[in-house]
Amino acid sequence: MGTPEFAVPSLQALHESRHDIVLVVTQPDRPRGRGRKIMPSPVKESAVRYGYELSQPESVNSDAFRDIIEGFNPDLLVVVAFGRIIPGHLLKLPHVKAINVHASLLPKYRGPAPIQWAIINGEKETGVTTMLMDEGLDTGDILLQQAIPISPEDTSATIHDKLAREGACLLLETMENLITGKLIPTAQDPNKATYVPMLQKKDGHINWERSAIDIANFIRGINPWPGAFTFCGDTRLKIYKSKCLDKESHAAPGTVLMSFPDEILVATGKGTLLIEELQGASGKCLLTKEYLCGCSMEAGTVLT
Questions:
Q1: Among 132, 34, 282, CA closest to 293
Q2: How far are the Cα atoms of 20, 44, 55, 119, 132 from residue 8, in angstroms, in the given order?
Q3: How confident is the model at residue 179, as a pLDDT?
Q4: CB–CB of 231/208 below 8 Å?
Q5: pLDDT of residue 152
Q6: What are phi and psi of 152, to 5 degrees?
Q7: Residue 155 and residue 240: Cα distance in Å, rounded?
Q8: Can you tell me the distance from the alpha carbon of 100 to that of 130, in angstroms, rounded to the nearest whole number?
Q9: Backbone angles phi, psi at 162, to 5 degrees
């Protein structure tokens, strides 16, 4: 059971393993992209390519869907970024267990946006967890975990791809050890648990009152979606890449500072932010020096 691109490596790993996939479950086709064209999920595209039987229920709580799952008499139910809460009556159907691959080192970063928030919060590492599923939100017992570092250059896109691959490997390792009885599940410590909400498009608005390091992490954490943005007058600027500089300024946060002709330096609540890549009205991401060739930004300009 999976939907987005993150789940595709796990499906591929299962496809290439000794295990038999009897059914792939994914969400119904949805509008995607700028044209809002009805499109299949990445998992559906892969499942069709591999030739698997497919189910796309509007609701996983229906009796009809339960009958479908029950009819396959499954040993395991594997869930990777499916995007819906799995009801308890489905979790009880597999003979072995229902297991989930989650993109954080649980119990930290439960919820739908663990990759983005780990980077936004300045974490130095994140990882992937396999766990037994229960009726809570990412609260099941931990089976295996694999940590990876977060570099200053990483964005949510690069960490997403790394964790998708790590998750696929960890899933196979988990299944082999679970089936042979070599795994001892470990209960999560609720006192160490954190929950992170889904990000919305409006959440990308940069708050220049924050420190330069916080803003730089924020820009990396929401690249590519929802994307960090600010306003220069009436012009909406999308910021793709930045760097925190250890340079203090007495200017108000959001003020563009005097700098070299091909740079944009902005005062923040603490420190200075160097904008390296941005997108303006042209709709194309440009290096700062390329952007400034066609759009000047004088010192003293205030970004809001």
A1: 282
A2: 16, 9, 16, 23, 20
A3: 87
A4: no
A5: 96
A6: -65, -15
A7: 10
A8: 6
A9: -65, -45
How far is residue 285's CA from residue 299's CA, in Å, rounded to a whole number?
22
Question: Beta strand 97-102 with 76-80: parallel, antiparallel or unpaired?
Answer: parallel
- Separation of alpha carbons 295 and 263, rounded Å: 12
Q: Which of 193, 220, 190 is nearest to 121 (CA)?
A: 220
Phi, psi (5° rounding) for residue 23?
-160, 140
Helical residues (DSSP H) of the chain, grouped into ranges:
8-15, 42-50, 63-72, 88-91, 114-120, 156-179, 212-221, 288-294
**Topology at the third CATH level for domain 5-192:** Rossmann fold (3.40.50)
Give CATH for domain 201-294.
Answer: 3.10.25.10
Is the Cβ–Cβ distance between 261 and 251 less than 8 Å? no
Tallying the residues shown for the chain, one arrives at: 304
**Domain range list for the chain:** 5-192, 201-294
Low-confidence residues in the chain, pLDDT < 70: none
User: Residue 262 CB: number of other CB atoms within 10 A?
Assistant: 12
pLDDT of residue 32: 82
Q: Which amino acid is at 57?
A: P
Given a contact cutoff of 8 angstroms between Cβ atoms, the answer to whether 39 and 30 are in contact is yes
Residue-level pLDDT at 155: 98
Tokens of 172: 């196979």
